[in-house]
Structures are given as C-alpha cells and as structure tokens.
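Q: Here's a chain of 262 amino acids. Please give me its 3D structure as tokens.
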Amino acid sequence: MTDSPLQDSLLKDSPVQESQMQYRSVPVAHKSLSNVSAARGISFMQLWRREWHVKQQGAVQWLYPLVLFLVIITLFPLAVGSEPALLQRLGVSAVWIAALLSLVMGVDGLFKPALDNGTLAQLVVAKASLPLWVLIRLVIHWIFSSGIVAVLSLLAVPLFQLSWFEAWILMASIVTGSPMLLMLSAVASSLTLSLKNGAVLVPLIALPMQLPVLIFATGAVDLFATGLNGLPILALLLAGSIISVLVMPWVIAMTLKMAWLN
C-alpha cells in the first residue's frame, strides 16, 4: 500500500500513460498538506520499482537503439569488404561508433514524457529528490541500452575477426566509458526539453562533448591489441564516469525544474 494518492500515481503510471496522459500538476498542487508531506517519503525502492516497470513495459522504445547497433555492426563488414586485416583495424572504431549512435538515439524520450504527463510536476510539488529520480531513471536506461550493447559487442569476434582478448577489452571500454556518454546525452536532452524540436538538437549538443570519450576508449583497446598497457586510459574513463554519475544528476535535476517552471 502506498503512502498517498501522489505515490499511487507515481508508482502506477505505465509507459502508455507516460506518453498519452495529460498534464496533471494543477490538481496535484491542491493536495492536502498531509498528502504532500507523505509523498516526501517516497523511497528509493519505490522509485526504482516504478521506473523498472515503466522500462520493461516500453520494450519497443528501448529495442530500437539495440536494433540500430546490430544493423550498423552487421552492415559495416559488408561495406568495407572481407579482408581480415582491414576488418581488425576498423572493428573497434565501428563498434564504438555504433554504440555511441544507439545511445544518442535512445535519450530523446528520457524526460519529455515525464514533463508532458505531469510526473515531473508531481515530484517537484511533493519536494521529492529530483536528483535521485534522475539517477534511477538514467541507471535503468543504461542497463537496457549500454549494458546490453556491451554484451552485444562480443559479436565483433566473428564479424571483425577480433581476438577474444580484444573483444573483452572492447566490452570493458564500453562499460567504463558509456556512463559518461549517457550523462552527457542526458544533459543535452534536458537542455532542449522545452524546445519544440529539441530532439533534433540533442545529437548536435552531445556528440562534440562525447568525441574525447570515443577517442580514449578506442585508443585503450588499440594499446592492448599492440601489447601495451591501456589500463590507465580505462581507469581515466572509469573515473570520468564516476564523477559524471555523482555530479550530472544534480545538474539535470536543476535543468528539469527550470523547464517545468517555464
């Protein structure tokens, strides 16, 4: 049993409702003081279960980026030819570019439905922890996007003739670097939230910031492939991802709140 009607609405919204429900902040704003106070007690697990349920029910939406990733890495060998040396040289870059494009493609719907249907308004009015909600939403999105992409990157072994060692390092580079990419994409998505065609601008804002991550990640795999030590670069990517996870949710939360106020 939830603590208040506000929690009922937050915990029961389905993905279909997220995209179709009308803005509901005005009724919520007139809730009694006791209901608002109770809603402040929305726990981490309640938010996690709600977002996890929403993500599972919206399978079609998060499957599109994965299909795009598979299409790119499958068609790339057909386009460049079957020469093993060429495929091995381009394989890591091709997989990382496919992972980057699939990640950028999937962030346009991260916060827009929550703004349109009033979920964001409910959280703000209830004085819930917006950074915590943002972090949970992004972590679950990462699991269903980059987490799966990291596993699918092992297909580079048969497609690009990479060794299993190189494939495992490639997967490790995606795991360590993709959280930072997601946070940068989420910042771009939140900045364009109030714009009419903001989804078009997300790649233009995010990709220039993400290029250094792409360069460092592919460079780390190349170092391991040539027998050198690429661990410092992977450690640098991991440190950047940890800092992004700790800082970016607060920045995104402030941006979302300003978008709601406007």
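Q: Can you summarize the key feature?
A: The chain has one domain: 5-261.
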